[in-house]
């Protein structure tokens, strides 16, 4: 280790630990819970990279253990590969209120995302259990496009949003939560909808309950009359 001015540099780790002066605030004198010991006060700083269990590197990691439920389900086919346990095949068999459906067409339907990225986050799904956009029929793609346009107009009318994020995740490798059943996301956006909550607290502030959102969008949806 290099010593310069009372500090120790741990080669290969990017860490500089105090080997002579006082430890970090509240840690007490050097040698008693100081930063270089890997103690409870600072378990991420290690003195010896060769013997450390987790040597720091250049990567930042975003831990999403809840995604394991989707991964495990994909291995077993639950809700992913089979029509019998697909949530987007099951939803049309339920009532609109229970399934959060806002509109039903001939070939496709619109429902709220159960875990929305933003208020009013809608999904447009074909009834048919098909995974990829290029496997949908012309009738399905035409109605999905029509429902998407209508959803934008209704959301703009009932929520006064300023813009949209619209897109599809095709396949598990692209991040599709239910990869076996095609679905398009429609996420309304407002000028003030981004704040420090998602970044600092991993929390999204949702100003409206899903049932209330479904009712507003469904009531604003144009009828054939």
Descriptive notes:
The chain has 225 residues and is α+β, with helices and mostly antiparallel strands. 24% of the residues lie in helices and 16% in strands. It is built from 6 helices and 8 strands, in the order E-E-E-H-H-H-E-E-E-H-E-E-H-H. It has helices at residues 68-76, 87-90, 96-99, 138-159, 197-201, 210-220; strands at 2-4, 7-10, 15-18, 101-104, 108-112, 122-126, 163-167, 184-189. The protein has a 5-stranded antiparallel sheet with strand order 4-5-6-8-7. It has a 3-stranded antiparallel sheet with strand order 1-2-3, with no helix packed on it. Strand 1 (2-4) and strand 2 form a beta hairpin. The radius of gyration is 26 Å and the shape is globular. The N and C termini lie far apart (80 Å). Residues 1-39 have low confidence and may be disordered.
Kindly summarize this structure in a few lines.
By secondary structure, the protein is an alpha+beta fold.
User: Which residues form runs of ≥5 with pLDDT under 50?
Assistant: 1-39
Mean pLDDT: 74
N-to-C CA distance? 80 Å
- In which range does the helix fraction lie? 10-25%
Q: Give the oligomer, counting copies of the same chain as homo and different chains as hetero.
A: single chain
Query: What structural category arises from helix and sheet content?
Result: alpha+beta
Physical arrangement of strands within the biggest beta sheet? 4-5-6-8-7
**What is the count of β-strands?**
8
Percentage of residues in strands: 15-25%
Largest sheet: 5 strands, antiparallel
Order of helices and strands: EEEHHHEEEHEEHH
> What is the rounded Rg?
26 Å
Shape: globular
Total number of helices: 6
């Amino acid at each position: 280790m290099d010593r310069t001015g009372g500090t120790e540099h741990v080669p290969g780790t990017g860490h500089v630990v105090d080997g002579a002066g006082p430890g970090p605030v509240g840690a007490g004198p050097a040698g008693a819970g100081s930063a270089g010991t890997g103690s409870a006060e600072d378990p991420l700083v290690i003195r010896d990279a060769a013997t450390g269990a987790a040597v720091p590197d250049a990567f930042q990691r975003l831990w999403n253990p809840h995604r394991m439920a989707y991964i495990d389900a994909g291995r077993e086919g639950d809700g992913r590969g089979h029509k019998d346990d697909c949530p987007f095949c099951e939803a049309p068999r339920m009532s609109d209120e229970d399934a959060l459906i806002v509109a039903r067409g001939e070939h496709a339907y619109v429902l709220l995302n159960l875990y929305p990225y933003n208020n009013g986050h809608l999904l447009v799904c074909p009834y048919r259990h098909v995974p990829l956009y290029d496997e949908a029929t012309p009738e399905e793609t035409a109605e999905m496009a029509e429902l998407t346009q209508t959803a934008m107009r209704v959301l703009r009318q009932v929520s006064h949003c300023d813009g949209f994020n619209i897109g599809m995740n095709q396949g598990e490798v692209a991040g599709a939560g239910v990869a076996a059943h095609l679905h398009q996301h429609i996420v309304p956006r407002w000028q003030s909808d981004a704040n420090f909550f998602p970044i600092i607290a991993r929390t999204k502030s949702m100003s409206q309950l899903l049932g209330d959102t479904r009712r507003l969008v469904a009531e604003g949806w144009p009828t054939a009359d």
